[in-house]
Amino acid sequence: MRFPVRAITLDLDDTLWPFAPIGARIEQVLEAWMREHSPATAMRFPAAEMRALRDLVFDENPLLAHDLGALRRMTLERALRESGGDASLADAAYEAFYEARNQVECYPDAIEALQRIASRVPVAAVTNGNADLDRIGLGHHFRFNLGPREHGAAKPDASIFHAACTRLGCAPGEVLHVGDHIEMDVLGAARAGLRSCWIDREARDWPHDDIRPDLHFDSLAALADWLDAASPPLSEVATA
């Protein structure tokens, strides 16, 4: 299937890198940090209990669902306070968490594919997560990173897709959104009027009959191949 693409919006977690190892590392880092700086908190809230507290804080604050950083800070403050620790340590604990959150290991094809894609069309990150692309070292491939904290709503809300299109200077139908999540990425983008590309590394069955992705690949490299055949490089577009 061929169609023009003027820009791409790209999901991050589980599209550029797997999130599960990051989540496991975060728990280990936080538990170790608490053992060193607030032993009573580490004893009261080991990893499983901290996870349960995080879920409780998230459930109690639905109006902050778009701001994962604020919810994580609230979780840490509450854990420190309820364990008799020093709540002022929350900022330092959050920094330990955030450093671990941004230690990512990209899929083997992802970085080279991202370079190829960004040489063809402008790329913007549209993510529900809170990764820092500059910390990770990939920010130079992206025009911008738009997340729910900055925008005020998360995928699959159409407004976050439309905001990205506006910043890219493109109509929704000219933008291809790329991601792994069926609801957040593919259905959200399609309902917002964007083209959609499902990156499915697990050979899953597509569960919907009414909406299907415009493109379906098992890697970002396959998308880069498709773009190589469909779009001129940005350097050629700029001099045309």
**CATH fold call of the largest domain:** Rossmann fold
- Shape field: elongated
Biggest sheet layout: 6 strands, parallel
Q: SSE order, as H and E?
A: EHHHHHHEHEHHEHEEHH
Description of the structure:
The protein has 240 residues and is α/β, with parallel strands linked by helices. It folds into two domains: 146 residues, Rossmann fold; 82 residues, Four Helix Bundle (Hemerythrin (Met), subunit A), CATH 1.20.120.1600. A six-stranded parallel beta sheet has the order 3-2-1-4-5-6, sandwiched between helices. Helix 1 runs antiparallel to helix 5, helix 4 crosses helix 5 and helix 6 packs parallel to helix 11. The radius of gyration is 20 Å and the shape is elongated. The two termini are 25 Å apart. The mean pLDDT is 94.
What is the gist of this entry?
The chain has helices spanning 20-37, 39-44, 47-60, 68-82, 90-101, 110-120, 133-136, 148-151, 158-168, 182-191, 220-230, 234-239; strands spanning 7-10, 123-126, 145-146, 175-179, 195-199, 215-217.
Give short descriptive properties of this protein.
240 residues, Four Helix Bundle (Hemerythrin (Met), subunit A), 2 domains, 10% strand
Summarize the helices and strands and which ones pair or pack.
Layout lengths: L6 E4 L9 H18 L1 H6 L2 H14 L7 H15 L7 H12 L8 H11 L2 E4 L6 H4 L8 E2 L1 H4 L6 H11 L6 E5 L2 H10 L3 E5 L15 E3 L2 H11 L3 H6 L1
Helix pairs in contact: 1-5, 3-4, 4-5, 6-11
